[in-house]
Amino acid sequence: MAWEFKNGVPIYLQIITGVKIRIACGDMPPGSKVPSVRDLAQQAGVNPNTMQRALTQLEQDGLLYTQRTSGRYITEDEEKMTELRRSLSDGYIEELFTNLERLGLTRTQILDEVRAWAEKEEGEES
Amino acid sequence: MALIDCKSLTKKYGKKLALNNIDLSLEGGRIVGLAGPNGSGKTTLIKLLQHLLTPTDGEILIDGMKPGKDTKAIVSYLPDRDFLPDWMKLSALLDYYGKFYRDFDREKAEQLIDQLSLDRSMSMKKMSKGTREKVQLVLCVSRNAKVYLLDEPIAGVDPAARDYIIRTIIDNYNENALVLISTHLISDVEAVLDEVIFLKYGEVFLHENADDLRSRTQMSIDGYFREVFKC
């Protein structure tokens, strides 16, 4: 199965996140056609009804739109895309802080560590 | 209207109670998982639905009809064991199914067999267990049935074959049809289920929307199953 799912979280929510990431990374570029529900369901290894539910939600969020005769497309709305990237990156940062705070680091220490890590990486690259 | 409706359904084998007063209503357009440990009544329920057993008490209606000749015409059943004559060649089986079932879509079956690159002149006897299971599944899903009863379709095959079987089910079932899959390998099917039924000692322990169950219990269905049926 192509998509991995976590325990204890409804699958349709995980599909929504999965599609959002694909849109933000450009795997599903703005303006491109979204595969049919059945094809996507088969790709992800999920029930078509679940995929339908996730796509309907994404449509309500304005990330997808339906053209009456030809199917679903990814939004080309720049504002939506910026908002999407910001909300995803907020999520990653929150996760980083949660994990490191669990290890006992303070916020200031985390910021220092992150800066040090980035500088070290840069040094290794050059 | 429900495609499967069981009212106070009871089945006894002698004194042993296999199903105890079950009420169950299942609608079309859904894939439903029937889970429970060995001996919880899964196969008994499926055999009752397929009229291979008769109820001790209570009633079953499939699309409004009692199980029998008429329901077999709209129900595609995959037993939990090899059920086809092992001397028959694949080509002969296709003819056989075509003659037996009015809703058999020969073209679809041929396509699926091509995808598997199977030799039509091979007899069932010469096929591996995994291949036999795939052939039986192909024949089963190539019927345009209203109800699919799949008894342990993924037991005893390797993980890649399991993926194939699950994909084939998602891809080929008619979207108004009801698919009932009995299994104890829940983790393999949980992403494709709309609803789950847990059978425990012949009773319905739960019948719930799959995603609701995952968020309510904060667990995978498989994890919750392990907790409920801990030995």
Order of helices and strands of chain A: HHHEEHH
Whole-angstrom Rg of chain B: 18 Å
Which structural class is indicated by helix and strand composition of chain B?
A: alpha/beta
* Low-confidence regions of chain A: none
Provide structural commentary.
The complex is a heterodimer of chains A (126) and B (231). Chain A is mainly alpha-helical and 126 residues long. Chain A has five helices and two strands, in the order αααββαα. Chain A has a two-stranded antiparallel sheet with strand order 1-2. In chain A, a hairpin with a 3-residue loop joins β1 and β2. In chain A, α1 crosses α3, α1 packs across α4 and α2 packs across α3. Chain A is elongated, with a radius of gyration of 18 Å. The model of chain A has no long low-confidence stretch (mean pLDDT 90). With 231 residues, chain B is α/β, with parallel strands linked by helices. In chain B, the strands form two sheets. A six-stranded mixed beta sheet of chain B has the order 5-6-7-3-8-9, sandwiched between helices. A three-stranded antiparallel beta sheet of chain B has the order 2-1-4, with helices on one face. In chain B, α5 packs parallel to α6. The chains are: A mainly alpha (126), B alpha/beta (231). Chains A and B meet through α2 and α3 of A and α6 and α8 of B.
